[in-house]
Amino acid sequence: MLAVIDEGIGIAEKDLDTVFDRFYRVDEARVRKNGGSGLGLAIAKQIVRNHQGEIQVKSQVNEGSVFTVTIPMQKAGEVN
């Protein structure tokens, strides 16, 4: 498991279901001047899924977010 924690602007609860969608961006009033394309989390989700993993987010507005990635792994030398 890997967790990425920030103390940024957070994500509103209403947006948590769509935050991993392609081209999704938070409310423009809350975005920094340099913004973004809205692809980063969608790409991260696809990479994690390609490894049979899962990515989740927990967030509170004005407190930050925690993104958790879980990818199944095997011990060295094990074969499926």
UniProtKB/TrEMBL annotation:
Q: Name one GO molecular function term.
A: phosphorelay sensor kinase activity
Q: Which UniProt keywords apply?
A: ATP-binding, Kinase, Nucleotide-binding, Phosphoprotein, Transferase, Two-component regulatory system
Name the UniProt record assigns to this protein = histidine kinase
Top EC group: transferase
Q: Which reaction does it catalyse?
A: ATP + protein L-histidine = ADP + protein N-phospho-L-histidine
Q: Please name the taxonomic classification of the source.
A: Bacteria, Bacillati, Bacillota, Bacilli, Bacillales
Assigned GO CC terms: plasma membrane
The domain of life for this entry's organism is Bacteria
Tell me which InterPro entries the record gives: BphY/WalK/GraS-like (IPR050351), HATPase_C_sf (IPR036890), HATPase_dom (IPR003594), His_kinase_dom (IPR005467), Sig_transdc_His_kin-like_C (IPR004358)
Q: Which residues form the Histidine kinase domain?
A: 1-75
Organism, scientific name:
Salisediminibacterium beveridgei
**This enzyme's EC code(s):** 2.7.13.3
Entry's localization field: Membrane
Provide a GO biological process annotation: cellular response to phosphate starvation
